[in-house]
TrEMBL record:
Belongs to the group II decarboxylase family. Gene3D superfamilies: 3.90.1150.160, 4.10.280.50, Type I PLP-dependent aspartate aminotransferase-like (Major domain) (3.40.640.10). This is Glutamate decarboxylase. One of its GO terms (biological process) is L-glutamate catabolic process. It comes from Rhodococcus jostii. The modification N6-(pyridoxal phosphate)lysine is found at residue 279. GO terms for molecular function: aromatic-L-amino-acid decarboxylase activity; glutamate decarboxylase activity; pyridoxal phosphate binding.
Amino acid sequence: MSKHHHHHHRDILAPAYTGRLSIDPFPALRLPDEETDPEATYRFIHDELMLDGSSRLNLATFVTTWMDPEADKLMAETFDKNMIDKDEYPATAAIESRCVSMVADLFHAPHLSTTDPASATGVSTIGSSEAVMLGGLALKWRWRAKREAAGKDTARPNLVLGSNVQVVWEKFCRYFDVEPKYLPMEKGRYVVTPEQVRDAVDENTIGAVVIVGTTYTGELEPVAEIADALDDLAASGGPDVPIHVDAASGGFVVPFLYPDLLWDFRVPRVASINVSGHKYGLTYPGIGFVVWRDPEYLPEGLVFRVNYLGGDMPTFTLNFSRPGNQVVGQYYNFLRLGRAGYKSIMETLRDTAVRVGKRVGELEYFTLITDGTDIPVVAFEMAGDPGFTVFDVSHELRARGWQVPAYTMPADAEDVAVLRIVVREGFSADLGSLLAEAIEEVCAELREKGGGHTTAQHFAH
């Protein structure tokens, strides 16, 4: 009997953890010589992944970590569909188109047909990262076309944005050769102001980015007030600068909690909006959307007409092949929840966030920066110097299984260090109480032993 057959035989007869995978060291960096049976391979990888900890206790991420079991099932059934094959998978393509329509409608895009989903101008993307790149490209191309039509120089496009933007905006500027003009924050103010935006834009500005639901604190920047300032500027002969709203985190919260707040296409200066389905759209990663006010805001030159697998297909994406199951998961949520369902979930998340914030704010150690009312995010800093830092608190919470990130604020407010809790679907009031208790205990212990760890954790947005 060959060595291989002998091994295989042993694996079949051996108790679970005495097969080859459990005994022989496994090659990590090159392909193993022999095949292994599926069950043992599954167990080997499954066990290693336990070290990731529970995604549900990760309060650092905005990304969805729980969905209905029915959604899990639908998504598992559609892993194998390639979204880009619109001809082969017409049902998936239709579902994507309906999702884009629903998002555009939620954001009050004008001129939408109630019967034709193609009347919405937008695409689904892999998260807001791709959506931001596409939104930025459309701004750059429209600016360039206007300048060329006026016989002006197009060499130095710039984009006005706060130093509080998510890192993907820095990537957009670097990858697509746009100069970023960062507006500084200051201690106690972590959003941009209308005056800052108005003073920063010039004739080379392709657009101004305004965030609805900032990464650092979850605050809403004043879209309508910024638009007013830019309207005045344009009316007095200054540059006419469009706004792109980065609603990655707030786009599926604000319409349900604050339907009267003007931040979307009801503000005429807003040209485009991106949103993450995998954040408060309540879908697993990675799904996002970018929608434009109407077709004229998406330059035709960016859209490729592809004769692909037998059909004419307009595409505007950076990614080509990708699984259809994320769009299917998003569509499931839209149908399952509707406006009423999203509203009740967002209200519940806000109430949980506010309750956790209130309990943390009552501890002598902390001052709240955001209390969970804008979007369900609570950010807080140390009150005075209790002898330990937010980094110590974060480190000790991790030892109890909770991931609560500590990080310093953006440019010109770097001396402020905060802890941030993102409340997501699946984070119950009960878990909220347990977390608040854990924070209280950790602080009491740190006070007793006089501080702890000085190193800052790496913070990924």
